[in-house]
Amino acid sequence: MSHLHIPDGLLPVWVWGSGLLIALLFLILGSRRARTQSPQHIAYQGALGGLMLAAMAIPLGPFEYHVTLAGPMGILLGGAGAFQVAFVVSAILALMGHGGLTVVGLNALVLGSGAWAAHRVYRAVAPRMRPARALALGTAAGQALAGLLWFAVVGLSLKLESAGGATSRHVGAGGPVGLGLGGGFGALAVLAVPLWFLGIVVESVIAFGLGRFLARVQPGLLPVAPPADPAREVA
């Protein structure tokens, strides 16, 4: 649960406008760092962004659930690089009808926060843990944080809708799309919480497989090298 499918017109301007301004501020700060990166790294970032876009554009199952790969993006690109990718991907998805254009900033913040948390957790555990498990653990932490932020935004949407009497027809987040808000946050949580936990498991399994692949084929892409001494590895 880390991508908002809230259509334009539901959230007031101060909510989505604040999210967009904060997201643009992060982009400006991150652009300074991007100036020092090599063309090869920019191409690498773009390739991973295309992978993230493809993953988020393909629904899985009857609830139109889709993976985000925000955790692996944060681990492989770092917080700033992953946030740039998240913003561009969110904008492209909005143009494809996956949420309104007004929530691009909020989506970038939710995905970017999850990517940042995944990167931080991975850096903390990678020196003592096999890459696959470190990647999975970091991704699980990032997905958990992104889900909490998703619930916060959707909860605010429900509160504002209840106060204003509006009705939304499409609220989702890598999960149930077409779920009305009129049932309240409790009704939403009944469906969303299981999908949130499912998302943590699915994203972590994918990250585990990606970590094993990179450790065998191209370990240089991992931000932290695997432990040299097998005795130090966490079972």
Automatic annotation (TrEMBL):
Transmembrane domains' residue ranges: 13-30, 42-61, 73-96, 103-122, 134-158, 170-189
GO annotation terms (biological process): transition metal ion transport
Keyword RNA-binding: no
Stretch forming the signal peptide: none
Taxonomy, superkingdom: Bacteria
Listed GO CC annotations: plasma membrane
Membrane topology: Multi-pass membrane protein
Keyword list, A-Z: Cell membrane, Membrane, Transmembrane, Transmembrane helix, Transport
Subcellular location: Cell membrane
Main localization, broad class: membrane
PANTHER family, A to Z: METAL TRANSPORT PROTEIN HI_1621-RELATED
Official protein name in the record: Cobalamin biosynthesis protein CbiM
The organism of origin for this protein: Eiseniibacteriota bacterium
